[in-house]
Automatic annotation (TrEMBL):
<feature type="transmembrane region" description="Helical">
    <location>
        <begin position="12"/>
        <end position="33"/>
    </location>
</feature>
<keyword id="KW-0472">Membrane</keyword>
<protein>
    <submittedName>
        <fullName>NADH dehydrogenase (Ubiquinone) 1 alpha subcomplex subunit 4</fullName>
    </submittedName>
</protein>
<dbReference type="InterPro" id="IPR010530">
    <property type="entry name" value="B12D"/>
</dbReference>
<dbReference type="Pfam" id="PF06522">
    <property type="entry name" value="B12D"/>
</dbReference>
<keyword id="KW-1133">Transmembrane helix</keyword>
<keyword id="KW-0812">Transmembrane</keyword>
């Protein structure tokens, strides 16, 4: 670590390289952690009897980002109406 600091002190133009490179690495690791924790197709606990794709309800969106949010809201409302009936 001290080698990097001394290198940046000697060449200040390298600071953005280390800053954005480090940010990219941290962001990549965070995304992998997010996928492992929240991904419907990731199995960490192999002793669990339920398959992960069976936990997703028909009205739930399994995508990280969806451009059509109204569609999923309508499906959720219809599922709630069917449960009440």
């Amino acid at each position: 670590m001290s080698g990097v600091i001394s290198l940046v002190k000697a060449n200040p133009a390298l600071a953005p390289l280390f800053l954005f490179g480090g940010g990219g690495i941290v962001g990549g690791i965070a995304y992998i952690g997010h996928c492992l924790a929240n991904g419907p197709d990731v199995i960490i606990n192999k002793s669990a009897p339920q398959k992960p794709w069976q936990r997703i309800q028909p009205h739930e969106n399994a995508k990280l980002w969806s451009p059509n949010k109204e569609f999923w809201q309508e499906r959720k409302e219809k599922a709630e109406q069917l449960k009440k009936a």
